[in-house]
Amino acid sequence: MQQPIITKNTLSFLKELKKNNTREWFAENKKEFKAIEAEVKVYYAHISDALKIHDEIEKIKMFRIYRDVRFSKDKTPYQPHFAGSFSRAGARLRGGYYLRIRPGESFIATGFWQPNKEDILRIRKELELDSTEFREIINEKSFKTTWGALQGEELKTAPKGFSKEDPNIDLIRKKQFIFTRQFTDKEVLSPEFFNTVSNSFKAIRPYFDLMSDILTTDLNGESLLD
User: Fold this and answer.
1) Which of 63, 65, 159, 165 is least crowded, fewest Cβ atoms below 10 Å from its Cβ?
2) Across the beta sheet with 177-183, what order do the strands follow?
3) Which pTM does this prediction carry?
């Protein structure tokens, strides 16, 4: 199989869209958009296939280019990027993958963007009890080389029911548990970009395996899925 690539035409179109973000311009260039969109969807489908080699993917979601401007100060009608997410399968596998292609601002992301209140409490309780394995995984050399440091919004102080003096308060304060990796346009256009994305997603598996175990058991290690 020929290695899937992101083409120069894709980035060029998105750059033009950013400069001409109007319904009139888009209507005039919609045929080109549809052709590029079809190519990009194939690329994302290949990413999904690569993920399925080492993970169980429930669905792929491509985000629409049309913006919801009802509650935004920015009234430009289109997103000057392509983006899609890949959801892991079933209640026993947690976390997800994300890829955005945008000139000068392309990135991949993975982890837990908006954990519900039950999940975030369970994660915090686990970290309060023992964060050793969690820290070992996110600080492992090859993992950190690929993904860098844990990111995400966090509280300014300890959440209710937790001590601000807890030695794990740096993790307990987190409201999101995500990792991101940025890419230049040159990297996105490289034939190696596909493998870089695929291998980066594969590298997150120890983290996902631990978090899935945490989120499907209670503090005694008993399954919550039965």
Assistant:
1) 165
2) 57-62, 82-88, 96-101, 106-112, 177-183
3) 0.94
